[in-house]
Specification:
The complex is a heterodimer. Chain A is mainly beta. Helix content of chain A is 10%, strand content 23%. Chain A has an 11-stranded mixed β-sheet, covered by helices on one side. Classes of the chains: A mainly beta, B alpha+beta.
Chain lengths: 227, 295
């Protein structure tokens, strides 16, 4: 196991070391100590390594992640796992604004709460939040799954494309063109798998599914005069 | 951008360390605001009104100021000069006469109160904190700000915190869009801002509401109805400490609470040196939600 202490190693060296790991590396276990809320920790990784960050992180932790598993034992600042491509990011505490924004793939697990704009413009990432999410979450979300065990804030799924949103608790309000949809067997299967992988103790049947009404972005002949 | 830090102690034993803790927090927020920095610190009450004044030419402006002011007021005062600022301790009932005297001398009053002292200048936070010796100051609570100017010039008067009432101060991250309209409303009420800065309008708003009898929570609640724009405000009063974010809540904010203190930071980094932070309750304040503590 490799240990890097951020009280003595500059951020850039930390990221260079992690980014240098090749797909066949035998140094698969990394521990980052004393993150002290620093920004951009463990960004741009592209190897099947496991990185444990012992403490809380600032902006953009694990951004652009590919293949790696990044586990933050504290809370994460804004933009955690932004534009993730694959791999897994786990936050034991809370995540600040726009967690998982624009993510293309992989799994983001937030064991606490996520604040506003969680999963904004998500493009294939799966996000599981054990707690609540804030307002404007999944705004313009294109694909992927957002699973919330707690409650969702205002304007959930505003201007949504084809992402699936699953919420167990209450939804303060739905955004434009976001509606509740029928939970079909295939959704139960997707949800069951995600809950298992996220270590979440919840039954798929307890959730409601929300998605796009598909009225906002389709051309409608009645509106031809507006163009 | 801007950075905000705040610390409200719940127990007496940390009082001597307040300045040290706030200074570390402030310097950590340098990246968010390298233009100017300021701190309002609620220290020991001196048995009178503490008035913090500022001058760009302190050597000449503060030389003999205490004796001249004593002569004008006909009463003893105390003066403590710290760099470009001087803290005058005035006997009760002399505030108006003192303000008139200081205005005539071209001195700027940064703030006044039984407990509060305010120090702010342009420059890097570490330099500003060192010039005023903030690290050595004790107290019950304090609020600091690192500024990246957007709405008005980089000047001492444009730096935060703003104080527009005795023992009241406010810092702001964001920008207000209806501050000119509010400036007219507040001026009619007798709470005219002195600068063109949007944040001072918010400070005057809080002062006007407190003067009308609102408590700190109600005054902060009022900002959500009456002020338009982006804001995270942190407000200090003689006994209180409050936080409110606008409903959109784009401006970052994080809070930490232990049995010993409540802390506010624009980023978690600001908390890294606080005692017991690893076991503190850390959370992001909700949008359009007022948080306040009073002792």
């Amino acid at each position: 196991m490799q240990t890097i202490d951020m009280s003595t190693t500059p951020l850039r060296e930390v990221n260079v070391a992690l980014q240098a790991q090749a797909a066949q590396t035998n140094q698969t276990q990394w521990v980052i100590e004393n993150p002290r809320g620093a920004h951009a920790i463990a960004v741009g990784l592209d190897a099947p390594i496991e990185v444990t960050v012992k403490g809380s992180t600032g902006y953009y932790c694990a951004g652009m992640n590919k293949q790696a598993t990044v586990h933050v034992t504290g809370s994460a600042g804004p933009g955690v796992a932004e534009n993730m491509m694959s791999g897994t990011v786990i936050i034991d505490g809370d995540a600040s604004q726009y967690a998982g924004a624009t993510g293309h793939g992989g799994l983001l697990v937030i064991k606490g709460n996520a604040s506003s704009r969680c999963g904004i413009s998500m493009k294939g990432i799966d996000i599981v939040v054990h707690g609540n999410i804030g307002h404007m979450s999944a705004f313009m979300a294109q694909s992927g799954n957002l699973v919330v065990l707690g409650d969702a804030g205002d304007a959930l799924g505003d201007s949504l494309y084809e992402a699936r949103l699953f919420v167990r608790g209450s939804v303060k309000s739905l955004g434009s063109d976001c509606i509740e949809k029928e939970m079909r067997p295939e959704h139960i299967e997707i949800l069951k798998d995600l809950l298992e992988r996220a270590g979440a103790d919840a039954k798929p049947e307890e959730f409601k599914r929300y998605g796009s009404a598909r009225t906002l972005y389709n051309f409608h002949v009645d509106h031809a005069g507006a163009y | 951008m801007c950075g905000i830090v705040g610390l409200f102690l719940k127990k007496e034993d940390l009082r001597p360390r307040l300045g040290e803790m706030l200074t570390d927090m402030l310097i950590t927020m340098t990246d968010r605001g390298p233009d100017s920095a300021g701190i309002a610190i609620y220290g020991d009450e001196a048995g009178g009104l503490k008035m913090t004044v500022q001058s760009d030419t302190p050597e000449t402006a503060f030389a003999g100021l205490d004796t001249a002011l004593e002569a004008a007021l006909g009463q003893k005062i105390a003066m403590k000069v710290i760099d470009t600022h001087a803290v005058l301790t005035l006997p009760e009932g002399t505030e108006a006469a003192a303000r008139a005297f200081l205005a005539e001398k071209g001195l700027r009053v940064m703030g006044a109160g039984a407990a509060m002292e305010i120090f702010k200048e342009t420059g890097l936070p570490k330099d500003v904190a060192a010039r005023f010796g903030i690290r050595a100051m004790g107290g019950s609570h304090g609020i600091g700000h690192t500024r990246m100017a957007t709405e008005s010039a980089v000047t001492t008067l444009g730096a935060h915190p703003f104080s527009t009432g005795d023992d009241q101060c406010l810092v702001h991250n964001g920008s207000l869009s209806n501050h000119n309209q509010m400036r007219r409303v507040l001026t009619e009420k007798g709470f005219a801002p002195l600068t063109q800065n949007d944040t001072e309008v918010a400070a005057c708003y809080i002062s006007s509401r407190l003067a009308e009898g609102a408590n700190l929570g109600e005054a902060l609640e009022g900002t959500l109805q009456d002020l338009d724009g982006f804001f995270t405000f942190v407000v200090g009063t003689k006994n209180g400490f409050g936080v409110v974010r606008d409903p959109i809540a784009c401006k970052p904010a994080v809070m930490a609470e232990t049995d010993d203190y409540v802390a506010f930071g624009s980023e978690y980094r600001a908390f890294a040196n606080l005692p017991g932070i690893d076991t503190a309750r850390v959370w992001e304040p909700e949008p359009a939600t007022v948080y306040f503590w009073e002792r």
